[in-house]
Amino acid sequence: MRRLLAAALLSLSLIAPAFALVSPSERLPDPEQEARAREISKELRCLVCQNQSIDDSDAELAGDLRRIVRERIAAGDTDEEVLDFVVARYGEFVLMTPRFRPATWVLWLTPGLVLLGGGAVAVLFLRRKRRETAAPGLTGEEEARLAELTGRRNPPDSAP
Hints:
With 160 residues, this protein is mainly α. The chain has six helices and no strands. It is elongated and about 95 Å long.
């Protein structure tokens, strides 16, 4: 029983900091709207921390962004409208996963192009390596001698 209680307290102590980031005063009364706000908050980058979502950050600006998200949801905006509002205000950088637009094509396509280029270089390298290590062809004398030893009448390159 003591072990179970200790495990429960340990689990609660590890989970509690995550709940502390969104203060009770920020939470929406409707659980469905609050769940939407939390999901949207996971998609938005903290502009101070830069590699944390506003849901995970305790920076003051992240708190302001969380409040903006909740205000927009309470006003009846859809998830896309909330994201569009925040992007219009703070720029595309605020999104954890940038949208696929002409301005971000390089960001999205570069990894694939690098992978394809690396694959092409590897194939060319392996072909060249195989050609260099291949045994050289036999001379005419060697082919004649091989034909004599194996009992063939004509060497492979000569006409019948």
